[in-house]
Design a protein that fits this description.
mainly beta, Tachylectin-2, Chain A, Jelly Rolls, 2 domains, ten-stranded antiparallel beta sheet, five-stranded mixed beta sheet, 1 helix, binds beta-D-fructofuranose
């Protein structure tokens, strides 16, 4: 079927359900989420003709994953996003079963989307698939046309490279060349990343397996992203199937990075250990972009595969994290909410030097779509923290455990949906814990000690479970509490 017709059919389907979804108590207020039906990975995060663009994996016919389209949002400031028409629909033989994840790049004034064309070749989605890399182009950043040379990378290279699991191109330019990395696995299921080079985005030359897992590093690396920062090369990727190690790798799949140096000639990346980008429950397939001022900004899918998603009963599924700026400090990435989000702040409430013994709340410090900044002096308390979205015997607990030097995020009593605890190691600095928390109707994102660690979770409480409480086992001092509605 004609591409435009398929897009219109999908739009009509999404529109039919849109109003119902907008009335859901779990529909995010300031996070990107689909107007209706299914969303996964961020795709094509870019800046083009004065606007940020974020595309996403979209199934516009049900709140379940299905043949993938690319949904589309755009923004002038990273804080307010507006919906744009669906950008890609699977209408060609090479992408007949889905336009899978990919990225975007500007060339000669046009915006190119590079994505994976997916074909099922039998009933088993793990073995019966064929994937190629394709391009679509736009002159206005709104309507896209697939190019006649598609697919531009086909087949997967020879060697110890799985011939079919071959996807998620992330493209960038360096010097006179374009490069892309692709998610891959070896023939015996070890995650790896492939590096390609091109002069024109159309003809691609395979350079090398840039990096490959050793030890507990998963059977497939999805959604790779490679960029330079402060003279180092950073490879971000989403390894499937790493085994839990203590507090680490507790989710079904992981998202993290390694820091190293890429030799563009040999195509080999020398790198250090894998680090996680977020220690919560719901964070996958992050994608980054360099904005016009050179900042590196990251957005991830705020869900996890095979996790229960109660919002599906409300005819949608999936949301994106807030945009986070990445900063390299002492060889590790910090992630911080972009300051543009401050533009959304309304209704400021401020407290300082409040002593807490037992449990307390503060007048006006509550809500379902808020930003919270808190600095806590731990004093002699050995355990202390916050309860978010509390009420109706529901609460999402954030607990500092001094003995363990860790922050625990506990959503066992959060409401509907999956429970569980996730922990991140955090050292107090001068006995202080600094938190920047973003609550939106079905999510919490927690940035600890200036973005040293982040923890993200989807939660599904009742609408009027909106209290925020502070508690401790001895006494603590809230040096500063700021709250804004967003
Ligand atoms: C990651 C992923 C990608 C793939 C896409 C399909 O979440 O599995 O590897 O391109 O989702 O929707």
């Amino acid at each position: 079927m004609n591409h435009q017709k398929k897009v219109e059919e999908a739009e009509a389907s999404v529109n039919k359900m849109r109003e119902k979804v907008s009335g859901s108590p779990w529909k995010p207020a300031y996070h990107m989420s689909p107007p209706s039906f299914w969303m996964n990975d961020p795709n094509g995060f870019s800046y083009y003709k004065g606007e940020y663009h974020l595309f996403y994996q979209h199934h516009p016919f049900s709140p379940e994953w299905g043949p993938m389209y690319w949904g589309h949002f755009k923004s002038k400031d990273l804080a307010h996003w507006e919906e744009a028409p669906i950008a890609l629909a699977p209408n060609e033989e090479y992408d007949r079963d889905g336009c899978f994840s990919g990225s975007a790049i500007e060339k000669d004034g046009k915006l190119y989307l590079m994505y994976t064309g997916n074909q099922w070749t039998g009933p088993d989605h793990d073995t019966d698939l064929y994937q190629t890399q394709c391009l679509a182009v736009s002159e206005d950043g709104m309507t896209f046309e697939k190019i006649s040379e598609n697919p531009v990378i086909d087949p997967a290279p020879e060697g110890d490279i799985h011939p079919y699991h071959f996807r998620d191109p992330k493209v960038w330019k360096k010097g006179d060349h374009y490069y892309c990395v692709l998610g891959s696995r070896t023939k015996d299921d070890v995650g790896q990343v492939l590096l390609y080079r091109s002069e024109d985005l159309i003809k691609w030359e395979f350079i090398n397996v840039a990096a490959k897992g050793e030890g507990n590093f998963g059977f497939m690396w999805e959604c790779p992203d490679l960029f330079e920062m402060d003279g180092r090369t950073i490879l971000v990727m989403s390894p499937q199937g790493m085994e839990p190690e203590g507090n680490l790798y507790q989710n079904l799949h992981q998202a993290g990075y390694v820091v190293g140096a890429l030799d563009y000639e040999s195509g080999k990346l020398q790198h250090g250990d894998f680090e996680m980008l977020d220690y919560g429950f719901d964070f996958y397939a992050p994608q980054t972009m360099a904005d016009p001022t050179g900042r590196r900004i990251m957005i991830a899918w705020m869900n996890m595969w095979e996790s229960q998603m109660p919002e599906q009963d409300e005819n949608f599924a999936g949301a994106m994290t807030i945009p986070r700026e990445l900063i390299l400090e002492n060889g590790k990435l910090k992630s911080k909410p972009v300051p543009e989000l401050e533009k959304r702040r309304r209704n400021h409430k401020h407290f300082k030097n409040v002593t807490v013994e037992g449990e307390t709340s503060l007048p006006g410090i509550e809500g379902n779509a808020v930003e919270l900044k808190v600095t806590i002096d731990a004093k002699k308390a050995s355990q202390f923290g916050l309860k978010l979205r509390a009420g109706h015997k529901e609460e999402t607990e954030l607990l500092y455990i001094k003995e363990e030097r860790s922050v625990a995020l506990d959503r066992s009593l959060a409401g509907k949906g999956p429970g569980g605890v996730r922990k991140a190691e955090v050292e107090l600095d001068e006995n202080l814990l600094k938190l920047n928390i973003f609550i939106d109707h079905s999510s919490v994102e927690i940035f600890i000690n200036g973005g040293e660690k982040a923890m993200t979770a989807r939660i599904y409480p009742q609408k009027d479970s909106s209290q925020i409480r502070f508690f401790c086992d001895d006494s603590i001092e809230l040096l500063q509490v700021d709250k804004w509605d967003l």
